[in-house]
Amino acid sequence: MKRFLAFLLIASLAVTLWGCSQTPGSADTTGASAAEQTQTASTGTEAVVTVPTDTEEEPLQGEGTSVRSLRCVPGGGVIVSIVPCTAVEALVLCTADETGEDHILCRVDLKADQVLAQRDVGRDVPLGRRPNGSTVTVNYETRTLRLWDENLQRAEELPFPGDQGYYSQKEDRIYAVDGGTLTRMDFYGNTEELLSFRCGAKIVAVDPTWRRVLVRGLPSDDRADSANLLYTLDGTLLFREESDRVPEGFTRDGALLRGRGEAGKPGELAVCDPSGAHTAWALADGTSVFSFPGSGFLGMSEYSAAGGTTLSAVDTRSGSLSEIASYPDQRYVTFAWWAEAETLVVGVSGKGHAKLMLVEPAQMSATEQLTVATPRTEPPAEPMPTLSTRLKELRQRADRLEKTYGVRILFSNQAAIAPVSHEYSFIYTDAIPRGDESSLLAGAMEKLEAVLSAYPEGFFQSFRNYEDAAGIRILLVGDLVKGASSLDDAGVTYMTGGWYNIAMRAEGIQQSFLHRELWHAVEYRMEALGRPVDEAYWRSMNPEGFVYAGDIGSAQEAEAVDSEFILGATDSEQICCVSSDAVVDEREDRATLVAFLLSEETAPQDQRKFLKHYPLLQKKLKYLEERVSPLFGSAYWIRELPEE
């Protein structure tokens, strides 16, 4: 028994693939096979599973819901992990017996309830199945990747550069994590380093589908294990929170599942919007939670003081819990999310056998509502610094704009209370002589008010998190500094806590600059909610021969050479950018495109010409409309377009 429990502990630490972690339990060595222990009574497409009384198990709960027990997993061992791969199949990793010395890998047809192939794979664990039908496994101890044929027979081997692995079927690439380094590799042995975090930071989980990386630590200094950070795969920081909560994984819409209390004490289940705060529910001691990147549900196993095990599905939006099964003793449990069927696949092991269950959580009736956890007490906000008398009227104007549009506006010495980006620092306008400062800020406030009025009602509310807090914060500053030098940029957008911060240089401010930075905030929000722009598709909309310059200097040089691609030079149907700024990169292309439509600095006749004569620009706008509308209610620039 001790050996078995030790094995389960090792497995739960080592096998965390696609959000499927494990929970240790106990089991004896007696019992029937999976086929002998269950009976299924079907009515139409629904099934209610009952367990014969000779096994001394409680019947599965949720009568009248979609819960079905399969018969196809060999008995005698433990289900270690489940990796759904197609609309039909999953890879199921079992142990040959309860010692856990060797693994048996099964290809299972979940719909037909049939094992298609199986073999002993030693200490390998499955990552997925490739489009060509081969199965990918990895041995973390020897750092060896293996590619098995369709029948799990012959295997090719490749070195594996990490101690965590994730497979993306869409890309047909492997993501390998080694501490704080993320590497992507193909199946020819070619590798590329994507991200590398230092100073004790550790990558907790990777979600290749939605292109997110969850990190624990502070990469920018020597303090380890003091913050949770969410990045995109290209290194954009989406979220940072300094707390003692333990990061767990991903859920739908980019939300984070984080947090368990100290050992032996009740904790909390926190489903967090990456922009900041969270909805938290009390979590009883002895409860384990399984998260899935593409699902609105969690799997939960709870162990009672009396030694029983209860399995449940939890809706991440409402906190409603639906009980799946209840056992009088402790069981080893693993969950996986079968996205194609919107179904939970549950592996339960114990009493000498193992079995699989298919659960459709959306069809289940809630049996309990999780209790809302007591909110954590946040430190009191820093008192707002007192402004000079000359600026009080501007503060009153800013207060009115804040109330009307639901944004935060800070300037002069008050802007210094907002955290700066880890890449930039600011020189604030209170360093300017008072008369000049008030005149400068009055002009900037005029531009800002005109910009805010261009957005539809409720637009800025879309940046609020689950607790209706934070959102857009605009800082009007004197200068932006990176390192020891001023930036050429008019503004920068970055995230801290629940805020989407936009720092703008007050001098020389233009409406188009503000609209561009607001688009960058929109794009961060899209990424945080799991709907990023498909960069490859975006590039495919550009004409042959067009290449982004990479920086503004190169883009301005390219304007003379590639003028056939830039609006205003010719009437060519090859026009794909509205200015030389758009040639910098994909993000600036999108920001300048939307700003072109919204800014009053753009002549209406140019807008009409833009719509009628440039199909590539229209195609880009149509694509952005499809990405933005589901998250913001509509593509917010649509009402600004002139009629045909």
Helix content: 10-25%
Number of helices: 10
Shape: globular
Strand order of the largest sheet: 1-29-30-31-4
Q: Spans with pLDDT under 50 lasting ≥5 residues? A: 1-64, 220-225, 376-380
Average pLDDT figure = 78
What class would the helix/strand composition place it in?
Answer: alpha+beta
Strand content: 25-35%
Gap between N and C termini, in Å?
A: 76 Å
Mind describing the biggest β-sheet?
A: 5 strands, antiparallel
Measured on Cα atoms, how large is the radius of gyration? 28 Å
The tally of beta strands, per DSSP, is 39
Describe the structure.
By secondary structure, this protein is an alpha+beta fold. The protein has ten helices and 39 strands. Strands 1-29-30-31-4 form a five-stranded antiparallel β-sheet. A five-stranded antiparallel β-sheet has the order 25-26-27-28-32, with no helix packed on it. Strand 29 (332-338) and strand 30 (343-350) form a beta hairpin. Helix 3 (392-405) packs parallel to helix 4 (434-452) and helix 5 crosses helix 8. The protein starts with a helix and ends in a 12-residue tail after the last helix.
